[in-house]
């Protein structure tokens, strides 16, 4: 197959890395890609938001399969536009992508199909939202309904904090249209994990679990980020819990989406809160997580390209596909100052030496300068990833590689997978 991957982050680098190792992948392209992806794919300078440009590119290179990485183009309808031109696409339609694009739609969908989640109400009026917050009390959670790059969530410990967040979101000052509707929901106590499934209508293949580390600092301190590291499988995942997630969440979701005329084709990423061996759904994402994807791709075995093609065509099967029992771990290296204002255009050295330590280094926020050297241009910049016989061994390999990277302006958490190892 000739395959085109849409995206430029660590998630897309991991996808390209795995697809390039698939027996059925004969040529690989990425738009726009990054310097790491360029080692395994032909990169094309077309933005993920440029739907006409991506259609033109697809018509030029004629891929057999297109894999869409980020959520924003899916929510904007990129998969529909490409399918209308006759391309096989791994990624949901605009209507199905509402599961991530609108939290109000998502929560109402959960209610219609009796999927366990937090008690909630949707609001477009700030005074009514504040009255509900006073009624419910704190702690309580306030979310933008629309996409806010992972930043539109406030876990408020007081009602005053929650009401301020609600007013700020609905004012449009901070999140624009993403905050024109908000969701206010009960606070769920427990431990967050993620679960992934490749889906095609009502058929699906489990990819298993991972646990992300959202806070910027060791010991889960500091502000939330897009993710500072992950490991897979998650320590809380048992056969019993997985069966519960599949029966109460994945199956009803796929059945409900199909029944409502929006069958889901792509990857379903369930964000879960687990307490006392019971899971509730916090949210769905309609794409692979980052950095969870990096750990999952290390564990995928078999012809992954064939699996995604079959999902895109509606003929999903587990033909030769499996997930390794060996755990994987990813440590994110971020630019100094992240998740606030961070330093850009700083030089990163010794990446080749670090790769010789047994880790795989996925690029996210990097580019080449005029001299062809790798520089950091994003907040989250590298995903140093390893797989081994144990979580501890994988962690040792990843942190050993980080020791070799010469990037004074970069930092990472030192405790990825601490829950699993404690």
Overall description:
The protein is of the alpha+beta class. It folds into four domains: 2-93, Rossmann fold; 125-180, Dna Ligase, domain 1 (2-Layer Sandwich); 191-323, 2-Layer Sandwich (D-amino Acid Aminotransferase, Chain A, domain 1); 328-421, Phosphoribosylglycinamide synthetase, C-terminal domain (Glycinamide Ribonucleotide Synthetase, Chain A, domain 4), CATH 3.90.600.10. It is 32% helix and 29% strand. The protein contains 14 helices and 25 strands. The chain has helices spanning 10-19, 51-61, 71-75, 78-84, 98-101, 103-112, 126-136, 159-171, 239-259, 292-299, 304-313, 351-355, 391-404, 418-421, and strands at 2-7, 27-32, 42-43, 65-68, 89-90, 120-123, 140-144, 153-156, 182-186, 191-200, 203-212, 215-217, 221-224, 229-232, 265-275, 278-285, 300-301, 322-323, 328-335, 346-347, 360-363, 366-368, 374-376, 380-387, 410-411. Strands 10, 11, 14, 15, 16, 19, 21, 24 and 25 form a nine-stranded antiparallel beta sheet that branches. Helix 1 runs parallel beside helix 10 and helix 7 (126-136) packs antiparallel against helix 8 (159-171). The longest helix has 21 residues, at 239-259. The radius of gyration is 21 Å and the shape is globular. The mean pLDDT is 96.
């Amino acid at each position: 197959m000739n395959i085109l991957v849409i995206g430029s982050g660590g998630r897309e680098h991991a996808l390209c890395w795995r697809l390039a190792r698939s027996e059925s992948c004969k040529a690989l392209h990425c738009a726009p890609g990054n310097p790491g992806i360029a080692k395994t794919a032909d990169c094309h300078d077309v933005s993920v938001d440029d739907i006409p440009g991506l259609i033109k590119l697809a018509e030029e290179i004629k891929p057999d399969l297109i894999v869409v990485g980020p959520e924003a183009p899916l929510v904007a309808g990129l998969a529909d536009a490409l399918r209308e031109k006759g391309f096989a696409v791994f990624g949901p339609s605009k209507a199905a992508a509402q599961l991530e694009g609108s939290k109000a739609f998502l929560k109402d969908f959960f209610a219609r199909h009796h999927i366990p989640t937090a008690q909630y109400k949707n609001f477009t009026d700030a005074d009514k939202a504040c009255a509900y917050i006073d009624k419910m009390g704190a702690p309580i959670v306030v979310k933008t309904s629309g996409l806010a790059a992972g930043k539109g969530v406030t876990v408020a410990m007081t009602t005053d904090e929650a009401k301020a967040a609600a007013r700020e979101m609905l004012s449009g000052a901070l999140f624009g249209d993403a905050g024109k509707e908000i969701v206010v929901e009960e606070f769920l106590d427990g431990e967050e994990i993620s679960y992934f499934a490749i889906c095609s209508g009502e058929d699906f293949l489990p990819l298993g679990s991972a646990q992300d580390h959202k806070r910027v600092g060791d010991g889960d301190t500091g502000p939330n980020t897009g993710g500072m590291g992950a490991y897979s499988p998650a320590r809380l995942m048992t056969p019993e819990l997985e069966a519960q997630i599949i029966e109460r969440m994945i199956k009803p979701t796929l059945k409900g989406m199909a029944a409502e005329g929006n069958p889901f084709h792509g990857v379903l990423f369930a964000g879960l809160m687990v307490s006392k061996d019971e899971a509730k759904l916090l949210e769905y994402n309609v794409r692979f997580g980052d950095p969870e994807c990096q750990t999952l791709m290390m564990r995928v075995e078999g012809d992954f390209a064939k699996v995604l093609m079959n999902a895109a065509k509606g003929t999903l099967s587990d033909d030769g596909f499996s997930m390794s029992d060996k755990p994987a771990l990813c440590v994110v290296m971020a630019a100094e100052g992240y998740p606030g204002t961070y330093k850009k255009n700083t030089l990163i050295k010794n990446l080749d030496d670090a790769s010789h330590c047994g880790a795989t280094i996925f690029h996210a926020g990097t580019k080449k300068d005029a001299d062809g050297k790798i520089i950091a241009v994003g907040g989250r910049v590298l995903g140093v990833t390893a797989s081994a016989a144990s979580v501890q061994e994988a962690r040792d390999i990843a942190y050993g590689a980080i020791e070799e990277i010469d990037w004074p302006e970069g930092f990472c958490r030192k405790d990825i997978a601490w829950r699993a190892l404690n």
